[in-house]
Amino acid sequence: MNAIKILNNPKGINMGARHISISTSGLVPKIYQLAEENIQCTLSISLHATTDEKRSEMMPVNNRYPIEELMDACKYY
What is the pTM of this model? Predict the structure, then answer.
């Protein structure tokens, strides 16, 4: 969040928020936190698979935050 605020700040880099893209493996609580910041940046998710079974093999984060929970957070965002 600090980096986004510096990039977006007129006294910082002064980059428009819509030109900033946040990429994540799917840390659900952080997606909700980002949504609450109400910054108009793009959210990108590294999904890697369409089923929990396959995704868990490739991305252990899926064991903690399965696809359905991740998609709920994305919809909230």
Answer: 0.86
- Check residue 9 and report its DSSP letter: S
Alpha-carbon distance of 25 to 46, in angstroms, equals 5
Give the Cα separation of 65 and 21 in Å (integer): 21
Place of tokens 């880099």: 13
Spatial distance between the Cα atoms of 42 and 48, rounded to a whole number of angstroms: 19
Amino acid at 20: I
Q: Which contacts (CB < 8 Å, 24+ apart) does range 57-62 have?
A: 59/25, 59/26, 61/25, 61/26, 61/27, 62/26
| pLDDT value of position 36 | 96
Matching residue, tokens 């609580």: 29
